[in-house]
Amino acid sequence: MTRLAQAALRRFLLLALTLWCILTIMFALFKLLPGDPTSIFVDNNMPMEMIEHQKQLWGLNDPMWLQYAHYIANMALFRFGDSFFQNQTVFEILTGKVANTCAMILPALVVSVVLGTVLGALAGWNRGGRFEQATVTTALVLHSAPSFFVGILALMVFSYQLHWLPPGGMVSLGGPEGFWPLITSRDYLLHLILPLLVLVSREITGPILLVRGAMLEIKGADFIDILRAKGLPESRILVHATRNALLPLVTYIAVMTGLLLQGQVLLEIIFAWPGIGRELVTALGDLDYPVAQGALYVMAVVILLLNLVADLLYGLIDPRSR
Amino acid sequence: MAPRGDRSSGLRLILRHPSGIAGGIVVAVFTLLAVIGPLIAPHGPFEVVYNPDHSVLRLAGPTVRAWFGTTNQGMDVFSQLLWGTRSAMLVGLLSAIGSVVIGTMIGLVAGYFGGWIDEVLMRLTDVAFGIPFLPFAMVVISITRPSLGLVILLVVSFLWRTTARVIRAQVLSLRARPFVWAARAAGAGHLRILLRHIAPNVLPLSFLYAAIGVQAGVMLEAALSFLGYGDPNAMSWGTMLNAAFQAGAMRSAWWWVLPPGLALSLFVTAIFMITRAYEELLNPRLRAI
């Protein structure tokens, strides 16, 4: 086995271990708590035999280890069961919500990376200048600001005071239906602007600092001198240098997506965005535990997979790490 | 790493840094407010303010009677802010201490002993890194009972991981230094080497992560409370924002939304400025950047 395959296997086992830990904690929490899980469902007037029958059906009379094994197996295979209240399987509910979340995160990711690269490259190239100072300071301050308050402020100013933009939601009432018609509509773009700005203001810091740092090193590299000796204009040299500064950014993108997802719950609540984070909050409020568990699990899996991809990409791209 | 003489003057060095001074002053003011705030607050956190004619002073803008205005239930925003400062400081301080103590100990042991101990502890750290905090904390709180203690516990169980990794890396490099060999040659035991020779050298880093921990603790508590998972009996900035958000105060009552949000932003930024100043002290290479 090559070194890389070994590292991949190791990382994958670690991912499985982490998921197993999360699932075990969840199982223990739901099981060890006092209270009968059937009580949400079962009507007081139901005859005892029927309750027993239901319990049998759900496997609640099985020994604990068997329940645990079933639980782990079902979760691992993404079989989350049915929602308590919505007439749908948890899987169906969650796929729709994940798509909506992506409709907010992916544009933010693209804008952060592209704009961050440009700003970071310019800042690194003009080292010590006023532009660099301003860019880095602004990025750091924005990054440390609590993004949910930034979101609230943005809503207060642009939606409620100036009435320029819609106050939350993914689309207006009576707007286009279905995922594709929706995300290709102008209405969706209008709703996207504010959450996009808030997300970008926080996430752009990483690309700016990374690309700037890489540029500082590349500026002194020999190939830059050669390009200059060839008589290339400064703007062309800058493009060459930036391309070489992108390396550390590639792995960071996966990490960044994970970070985006973590803070997603707050932004989806503030902007009433029907994504997976908001679904988690709603499900917990409704005591719809299958949906809540599923949402938490899906978020954990996505974040872990992204971290895995980041680690593997790092090993693939940068030969020094091998 | 700073030689011994420098360490005692760490605070003074931070205060030589302009952003360190600014951040330090803001944090000092907040700390003072956390201590004396409830004493000078004109009302209790959940106390309803009445007009002279015994009607409730509901959603009033800033007035003499209520400096920062009142909420939709007629509670005094200024008083809530002061009480909230105490909750924020309490959560920030305790979660920082808890996470740094645990993280430093795990990092010290893992880095110093190496081998399977290191392997086990570091895999544990990796697992902790894979848990998405907010969703996980929400699920835990919703099936148990929300309290300030539980929030602190959750924040600690989330924050220790970074400290553990950083301290371990530092210990790995310290362990190989001549002064550790010298101590071992002189017959010092593991415990003595760890506590007398290695621990003092990682303390500056621990302090840095404690400061970051205060910031993260305050922020996470605010986020959880904002989502409605805070302690219902303790007033905090997040609880205020939650109530304001639920009541639609963004539309009508700016005086209710801005104080907790600005206090949170100001505090978090102040700590950030201190940590930047402190990092530059620990790592002079950053100064050039």
Structure description:
The complex is a heterodimer of chains A (about 325) and B (about 290). Chain A is an all-alpha fold and about 325 residues long. Helix content of chain A is about 75%, strand content about 0%. Chain A has 15 helices and no strands. Chain A has helices spanning about 5-30, 50-60, 65-75, 90-125, 130-145, 145-160, 180-185, 185-205, 205-220, 220-230, 235-245, 245-260, 265-270, 275-285, 290-315. In chain A, helix 4 runs antiparallel to helix 5 (about 130-145). The model of chain A has no long low-confidence stretch (mean pLDDT about 80). Helices cover about 75% and strands about 0% of the residues of chain B. Chain B starts with a helix and ends with a helix. The model of chain B is unreliable at about 1-10 (pLDDT under 50). The interface between A and B is large, with 46 and 38 residues.
